[in-house]
Structures are given as C-alpha cells and as structure tokens.
UniProtKB/TrEMBL annotation:
Alphabetical list of Pfam families matching this protein: Fumerase_C (PF05683)
Protein name, as recorded: Fumarate hydratase subunit beta
Keyword Lyase: yes
Protein's UniProt keywords contain Lyase: yes
UniProt xrefs under NCBIfam families: PRK06842.1, ttdB_fumA_fumB
Gene Ontology molecular function: fumarate hydratase activity
InterPro entries assigned: Fe-S_hydro-lyase_TtdB-typ_cat, Fe-S_hydroAse_TtdB_cat_sf
Organism taxonomic ancestry: Bacteria, Bacillati, Bacillota, Clostridia, Lachnospirales
Enzyme Commission (EC) number: 4.2.1.2
UniProt feature coiled coil, ranges: none
Fe-S hydro-lyase tartrate dehydratase beta-type catalytic domain boundaries: 7-175
Length: 185
C-alpha cells in the first residue's frame, strides 16, 4: 500500500504502517551516521543535551556527497543501518520514531522499535542521485567538524521509502525470505 506521512511523525500514522508499505515522507528529517551516533550516545550517557530533539523525529543514515551548483545536496543514498544498531535502542527509548537506511537490523533494535511503537524504513541503495531530488533543503545543525557525517536537517518532499520493520515487529526481510524459500520434498 502507498502511504504519505509527514515528519515529525504522528504516532497514529506510524502505528498504521505495515511492513511492505511504500511511504512518501514530507517534512523535516535528520541525518546521522556512525560518528554522530557515537557523539549523541556519549552525550546521553553523560546526561548532556542533544543537538536535536528526538521526539517524533526520523533519522536518515546518510552522508551526502558535495552538492552540485544550484542543488541543496549531492547524492544522498542510505548507508548500512546495522552500524548504528548499538545506538538505536537508546535513541528510540528517548523518543526517536523512525530510521531510514538499508539492510537488516539486530533483534535489540527490533525490540526497541516494538517497545516504542517506531518504524524502520529502507531507502533504495545505489539510488542516491535520485533520492537527492526529494531533498529541498539541507542545513548542518551539529557536529560540523564531522564533515559528511555531521547532523543535517533535511526538508524533504515525497521522499520514497519502504517500511521494513513496523511498530508490531513485522519484518519485510523475513517475510520475503519465507515467501520465496523452497524446501525439497
């Protein structure tokens, strides 16, 4: 099913999403990769404030290439999500509602998604140039010294993603494997 959602997200909309749904996201989302996650995690462990509110927000695991003239951002494809698995449960427990990346997530992340009624989306790897067209504005808001791994606020319009893990813990990757797995008689 095709769905349109706005970010920051509304809890009821997140809970209606099902694994396998195609989603188009409009609004503000944030980027963060490995180094930014480590800094946020360390800050939370030390009781320090984060540079952004996690409440009802979505983090896109992405580090863009330089923007071409007249564009707000360069190629903006997803990075491998499992690299953030150590940090994601705490971020979800602190109010994060969605993550966009590619690839499988750990059981701890799935449990945190269910516990917090969140969602994990996949963006198509290798389609960074195409995905960048949905990004209308990009502003570095924290950790500028990290370069492409700095936290950015993105204004997106109809950013395409697929629900992989929904708020009930249904996992598209597992469902597809079951559907296409064959056993000899």
């Amino acid at each position: 099913m095709n769905r349109i959602i706005h970010a920051p997200v509304i809890q009821e909309e997140i809970e209606q999403l099902r694994s396998g749904d195609y989603v188009y996201i409009t609004g503000k989302i944030y980027t963060a990769r490995d180094a930014a996650h480590l800094r946020m995690y360390t800050a939370m462990e030390q009781g320090d404030a984060l540079p952004l509110s996690l409440k009802d927000n979505i983090i896109y695991y992405m580090g863009p290439s330089p923007a071409r003239e007249g564009r707000p951002i360069g190629s903006a494809g997803p990075t491998t999500s499992s690299r953030m698995d150590k940090y994601a449960p705490l971020l979800l427990d602190r109010g994060l509602k969605g993550m966009i990346g590619k690839g499988r997530r750990s059981q701890a992340v799935t449990d945190a998604i269910v516990r917090n009624k969140g969602v994990y989306f996949a963006a198509v790897g290798g389609a960074g140039a195409l995905l960048s067209k949905a990004i209308k504005k990009s502003t570095v808001i924290a950790y500028e010294d990290l370069g492409t791994e700095a936290i950015r606020e993105l204004e997106v319009e109809n950013f395409p993603a697929i629900v992989v893990i929904d708020s009930q813990g249904n996992n598209l990757y597992d469902e597809v494997v079951k559907e296409y797995r064959t056993y000899p008689d």
